[in-house]
Amino acid sequence: MSANQRVVGNFILEGHLEPAQVQSYISEGNVKSWLLLEPEGGANCPASAVKSAGLDFACVPFVKKESGFPTESARSLISALDALPRPTVLSCSTARRASAVLALYLTHRQSDASCEIAREGAALSLARALDLKASQEPSLASWLELCSKEMKRSDLIFRQLFDTSGSSTYTYLLGDPASKDAILIDPVLEMVERDLAVADDLALKLKYVLNTHCHADHITGTGAIKKLRPEVKSMISRASGANADIYLLPGEKVCFGERYVEVRATPGHTDGCVTYVSQDNGGMAFTGDALLIRGCGRTDFQQGSPETLFDSVHSQIFSLPETFRVYPAHDYKGRHHSTVLEEKTLNPRLTKTKEEFKSIMDNLGLPYPKKIDAAVPANMVCGIQD
User: Residue limits of the Metallo-beta-lactamase domain (predicted)?
Assistant: First the structure.
């Protein structure tokens, strides 16, 4: 233990620990899990020792930025703690951030509603009542107040829609319940009327249509939607080379009302593949064809590269909190979603080494895509049909 140690129920708040101190926790057998709030791999990182001992380990970096501590990390931190058995060590450099996370978590779990904090300021009040270090640091106190307000928001409106016309494509509708602004991800031409009807039934105002990449197995519904709803803007990665109203770059955020998705570049299936990440509803990653449930997109056409795809998935998707849900562009076995943890541990291709992955992808022997000759040219011009 360190001089910063504080025990609160089944939680142990810790500051910087030397390897011998980490080993002491493990040897005593009084903890079952560990949540690290620093980037994994830093000096004296406890990850290796904790995992080797068979304890559950999670890492959700919680680091101050120029604008303060990020409120979007709140749900990821709560989800991570939900998944860990007790007793749990929460560690950072001084235990201050750990105390803020614990105050937020305890308030969240004590509230009457499953996705709300009971009242504004409750987390900060609890931190003060428990005399936690976070209550004495203005930036963390501000973070607790902001999180309390933000988490009182209603859950994101979310619908997963399936293409019944043959491509087994998933289209995703995301809406902000306050403003009713919405986005649509990966629409299919044949299903446009269905998609718009769902949005209308929910009283949503479609703002943007996003594609995860230039698809080869279906023609996007983007162009048809723009003809029916001229106010809607199309979006795609600049690296795709396809036409769109707005080109997206890695790290940008697509905002709709008070919500947003973050753009992460995940090339390898095609040069322009991106994953859209939402912090809402416990965390969601819309991975397109880069990562499928227990699989991935093929790499034998459209600038495909096994090595690039392997690196993309591991650096941009597997680096997300393990509780985040994975929503792919396709599934052919009736599955609806996975999680980052499931794919990191169970994906039969991406759990291999890069060399093994390349060998698998180079020898799939898949047939030429049926619609590629029609789909790709159409999708390069936003799916607009003459």
Answer: 168-330
pLDDT in tens, 280-305: 888 999 999 999 999 999 999 889 99
Q: What phi and psi values does residue 337 have, to the nearest 5 degrees?
A: -165, 170
In 3D, which of 115, 120, 160, 168 has the Cα closest to residue 142? 120
- Cβ contact 190:313 at 8 Å: no
Three-state secondary structure call for residue 198: helix
Which of 74-78, 191-195, 200-204 shows the lowest per-residue confidence on average (mean pLDDT)?
A: 74-78
151 vs 57: which has the higher pLDDT: 57
Rounded Cα distance between 84 and 55, Å, is 10
Q: Give all strands of the β-sheet with 88-91 in edge-to-edge order.
A: 6-8, 11-14, 88-91, 33-36, 56-59
> What backbone phi and psi angles, to 5 degrees, belong to 123?
-65, -40
Is the Cα torsion angle 163, 282, 60, 143 positive or negative in sign?
positive
The pLDDT value given to residue 281: 86
Distance CA 291, CA 266 (A): 9
- Tell me which residue of 312, 279, 217 sits closest to 77, measured CA to CA: 279
SS3 89: strand
pLDDT at res. 358: 97
| Domains, the chain, ordered by start | 6-150 (3.90.190.10), 157-380 (3.60.15.10)
Residues 6+ apart with CB under 8 A from 352: 360
